[in-house]
């Protein structure tokens, strides 16, 4: 009975690309999940630009807006703070929210530095609030199904994890110097923005990384200073140029604690790859492939199949047997990017309702951040870096 | 400014699979379309089973419910009647709605017979209401983009249209005798349920069909009498058996008015094809392929490409250059089945707001129905049937 | 021991595209098949154009040449006559070869008419020679493997056979009026040239066809009169035009004796499809897909796979478990078009050596021809035609 | 005129997997290349096991055999020595052949060590013979076409080269300790056997590598001592075990001299990947993908394509516009693995006939070997290694 369900009241800080994804997830959750334990109420959205935040509030269906994020945290009628602002602001907001006893959802990467991220983790642990970092790709049904197969031992000991996260949206040299290209705001470039997702998938599916060595590069070193929008597309003003202070691309070799060999590549300079977030896992009994651009599909190879009948199966993860599929449409009717957020939000609220700590959370965020830092260090010093030395 | 936008008040008759798809579209429309001229209000949902409709009302966010559809039509505070009931009820409800001056959205096929569908068209024309038939696949961005390419002459004169709509959800002989398998309720089987979609795509992209010849078959002639649910999955009670009175599969040869050769196949007995709604168009200057199971992709071949560089391009129709893409996510972040409904509903409300008749509408529904009837006749009489003889 | 193996002496009539394919197969057979019972000797090749046939003889490694095919048949040192001339000459040559007691390999289609083909069959039967029609696609390892799966009952009762043979090499209106476009030489166009292959695959994999209805069209009705080469590419002289007297495209509905619904489409006007010879078979327990353009792959769907793990397997038919794979390269190292001929020739010689009649043979050729004629008749008279009425 | 063409007389040392591939190429070359300047004569094949080499001689059509390779080199009637023996014998044979004034074709990797390979290069240079290392994948038509596109500037400055060479043939722990798994015979494992191919493709398509860092692993450290066959499949005797002394897998980060970021992975533990030799190149104006398992296809993305029409083109490299395609079959009729050798051999003989040094040759072999050694060193010492320091 939806009518008598408990509500959970959300305050969101930020309102751009990720703000849209999160807002939509809150709106859609009760529609698709008839067993959702908590029904989100979109109470307030905050942003510094009043006109913009007001428009976002109306467009996305929030009850009210604020131009000072601290006011949101101060409000008594808010249970959850959702942080979708640029990365350099996560720590301050999250710590304040924890201190105010709010549960916290935040975008990734958790913070700019390991030190920051650890302070955030301490804060949420100290104040006993639930916390989540929005590595949404974990919540693609095909990825959840891959996890299930791995946990069941279906592919056995894992030999290889191979991830590529390829984009091309900044290849044009006239693409402006948005905040994602400035280290002081974003922490890093392709590494933290998209590589962090691959790292999260690796940790989710394979386990912890022990050491890394990496190379990073910035192919286009200066760009026109443009609007600091949060969107992925923007037009720069070609007259004034500024320095790109983050990586355009990163490639990583990794050794996992369980012996798996890992390779990662994250780049924004892979033409034709709009959002090619893909991985392949090779285990002793089988292999798994996934690609976000066709995210409903999972490729599965099982060595146990009869001789001659072996081959990668193209599984359309929309059958009732697949995670989350029953919440949406009949078999063969695909879902998209936004549904990864709905699934993740569902898990978040279940954690709150049933009092367990869902994943990926700030602990995952800290571990992810440590790996990001190890990667940067290894690239800078041109050597292998142990994760436990960070 | 969302706040001052005009509202449009919806009453929905029916609440199952299609009810879910339409309800979701109304909810999501204002979120994604900041220029939507009308904001839907989900006023009332109707169904005969009170418990079920009440649950649907709460789950999907309708303000109220009714158990008698006539009450919905009688209400003054309803602008649009949306009909998502089994096919045999469309005519009566639509005609009553038209007489009450309501705009009408209805599921496909429009009706059970051509005669019924023509009466429906007369009614909406007489009462001057807007009307639409929910051939949602037209509104996949990739299909809209295909239409644009064809209209621009990009592939030239069309030689071939080749459509397969393949499903497998009733292959198990223990799947029950749901309403979709009873002629008196659904009109036909694979033909009207899925073949009708291919026919609509053909008419949209290529033009009118002149004549057809077809074969139809029912592979499993008796099934356990089960729940008459509207869903696609159900469990039959194996004890009592009933006759399947619709086609399991249909194959059609068609000649279009413009000379295009057409082939169609619709079946629910194509194992492994969960919802393989696909087509290929071959024109003098290029070819186009589309497949609903990976609906964001369009394959495009252009003969004009340089020698050696010719090949089908796999276009991910999520760039800003693609229809509707700007409403959703950045390039490479896919959308799914449900978005076809949002796009279609957007067009419907624009038609109402700007006073033009959107497509596909009841006229398309009548033409589609004529083709369905010609197909059935040709299969029965084992001969070619001219469309204009129906 | 290759050295002491029995030889088999070949005389080939014709020397163009198919002459090349067959010659190569004879040359390669003993290299790849260490258990080949007979080692072909390329004794003589015949053609009317002395310069051309002499060049072919040298290029392809034949011992001698003739300009009169009758001389080849008269020779005592020839065991096999291989006919790769245009279709209208098959009957006369084959009958003469049979009367001379030669085994016969011939290109498809067997003849121009059913009557001709039946006379050919009578001749080979009367004279007790082995005979084969070169439907080479049967001998792709993936197709042989598909046959094995079907015979094992792996996909159960077959509901659908769906074949497309799509080419685009004559789409340019300036492509000349080669012999393949003249009815008196080739019998038919896309139908007999490529559709006949699909029909052969259907008969091989599914069974006999009971009745058909079809549509045919010639999109470009006049073409420049050009060189009557046997090759697929040619340049016409735009000054004089001649009538195209064969079909550019054909689409067929078929009912098989075992109840399978069949659809066929063969066209030379499907831009971007260079040689897309593909089929899909849907059975009660599984489905199979194949496409000549990636002929080493077979897609296999098995309904018996565990829920959630179902999907089309992309099988690379180069494992030792696959037919003929052990003759070639290690797993994953693909073979190509020409290997289908080597495999077929191997079967032919085994039939001769072990005194059994291999398939596809003239009986298959007659049955194929009957279907071609039924298709033409059905297209002309716009009605269903029973195969047993031809 | 084939008849009067000059002959070139081949002596082959070794007769297993690669012996078969090379022998076939020599046999097929004159058949497919009517402009071949030299016609190979298969004079003599050598191997230590008389029974085996005799069988190979007969099966593959060599005129004679020897059990001592030195006898082949001593013969006056031999122009070319082709070395297809295990890697540890390449140097001795090649140097002897050079001293005898023979042109040399050898399998890759050129040698076990850089030092060996340099001595080989010195020998061929000193004696003025032509030399080639059989990196056959360069000669896949699609790869040659990729090279042409890159040289034309079609994809602009290259940012990324990403290669995976994935196999799975030794994943079963009972697979025996064949020579490819023993360092003293093969030099290295996945690195030299398959990684060397990727490195060659990288050098061919992108340019020279400046520095590398790598990780290597041997997942199965002991295996049953089995037949030292050259084939890829073998059965071990499970009773006695021996140590695997080469890598099962290697992953590499590389910096090219032109700034390209490179990643390489070569493994024999990637289940379901039979021979997945693939790469992707991302340039400022476009991207290219290739995969040996479907080697006739090339994927090409061009940023210059009109907005909305951008996408990877699946080019079937069998059109006349594609390298080598005219030598084989009409468009759409694929070729396979063995044709890469025919094309390479054609280039080799052209070099001999026209007196230029074809590539890839011993210089490429040395450079490849240097990279292999740098990779091993970097993996061992866990640091970046400059190529010019080797």
Largest protein interface, residues of each chain: A-B, 48 and 48 residues
Secondary structure: number of strands of chain A:
17
CATH architecture of the largest domain in chain A: 2-Layer Sandwich
Describe the global form of chain A: globular
Main sheet: strands, sense, barrel of chain A: 9 strands, mixed
Instruction: Supply the helix-strand structural class of chain A.
Output: alpha/beta
Overall pLDDT score of chain A: 95
Overall domain count of chain A: 2
**Given the structure, what is the number of helices of chain A?**
10
Q: Which fold does the CATH topology of the largest domain in chain A refer to?
A: Dihydrodipicolinate Reductase, domain 2
- In percent terms, what proportion of residues of chain A is strand? 25-35%
| CA-atom Rg of chain A in angstroms | 21 Å
The largest beta-sheet of chain A arranges its strands as 16-15-14-13-7-12-11-8-17
Assembly category? homotetramer
CATH class of the largest domain in chain A: Alpha Beta
């Amino acid at each position: 009975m939806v009518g008598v369900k408990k509500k959970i009241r959300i305050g969101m800080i930020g309102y751009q690309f990720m703000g849209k994804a999160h807002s939509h997830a809150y709106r859609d959750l009760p529609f698709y999940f008839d067993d959702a334990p908590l029904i989100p109420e979109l109470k307030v959205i905050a942003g510094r630009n009043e006109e913009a935040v007001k428009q976002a509030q109306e467009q996305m269906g929030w009850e009210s807006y604020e131009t000072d994020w601290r006011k949101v945290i101060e409000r008594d009628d808010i249970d959850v703070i959702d942080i979708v602002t640029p990365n350099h602001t996560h720590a301050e907001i999250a710590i304040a929210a924890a201190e105010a006893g709010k549960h916290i959802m935040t975008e990734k990467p958790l913070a700019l530095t390991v030190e920051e991220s650890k302070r955030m983790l301490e804060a949420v642990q100290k104040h006993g609030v639930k916390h989540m970092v929005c590595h949404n790709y974990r919540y693609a049904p095909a990825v959840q199904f891959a996890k299930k197969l791995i946990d069941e031992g279906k592919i056995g000991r894992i030999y290889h994890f191979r991830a590529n996260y390829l984009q091309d949206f900044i290849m044009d040299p006239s693409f402006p110097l948005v905040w994602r290209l400035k280290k002081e705001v974003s922490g890093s470039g392709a590494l933290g923005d998209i590589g962090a997702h691959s790292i999260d998938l690796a940790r989710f599916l394979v386990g912890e990384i022990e050491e890394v060595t990496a190379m990073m590069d910035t192919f286009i070193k200066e760009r026109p200073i443009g609007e600091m929008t949060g969107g992925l597309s923007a037009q720069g003003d070609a007259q004034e140029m500024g320095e790109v202070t983050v990586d355009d691309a990163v490639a990583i070799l990794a050794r996992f604690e369980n012996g798996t060999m890992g390779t990662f590549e994250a780049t924004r300079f892979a033409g034709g790859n709009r959002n090619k977030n893909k991985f392949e896992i090779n285990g002793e009994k089988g292999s798994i492939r996934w690609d976000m651009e066709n995210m409903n599909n999972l490729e599965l190879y099982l060595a146990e199949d009869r001789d001659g009948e072996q081959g990668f199966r193209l599984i359309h993860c929309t059958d009732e047997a697949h995670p989350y599929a029953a919440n949406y449409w009949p078999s063969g009717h695909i879902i998209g990017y936004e549904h990864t957020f709905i699934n993740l939000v569902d898990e978040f609220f279940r954690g709150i309702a049933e009092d367990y700590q869902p994943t990926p959370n700030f602990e995952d965020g800290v571990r992810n951040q440590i790996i990001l830092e190890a990667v940067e260090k290894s690239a800078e010093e041109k050597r292998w870096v142990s994760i436990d030395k960070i």
